[in-house]
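so im writing up the methods section and need the VOC family protein record in one place, dumping it here so i stop losing it
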Amino acid sequence: MTTNGISAVFLKTHNWGKAARFFQTLGYQLEFETDHNSGQLRNGDSPIVFIAEVPEDQATGSQLVLQVASEQDVHANPELELLTPFEDTHYGTREATVRDPDGRQWLLHAPAAK
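--- predicted struct ---
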């Protein structure tokens, strides 16, 4: 199985506006903003940055999102530790989580089922 590279950086923040302005200062352009304090930014052909505001009692953090050609490639690889199965997202992809040998979790994006 191979990935198609990094498709996104997913950030959780306590202040959507400040986080978005920070990335805009670095040259990212706002592609869209949701009505629930989140949005997507891009800088040229680089992976997107998706920022989501979470409540103060939740931890902030970041996660790299890897693009896979199909979820069957993931299921067919016995060396991958699948933590969460692929599920549809509200933004048109399917996501799953795997764990690497050092315990880090990686979010995988696959195309939506047709």
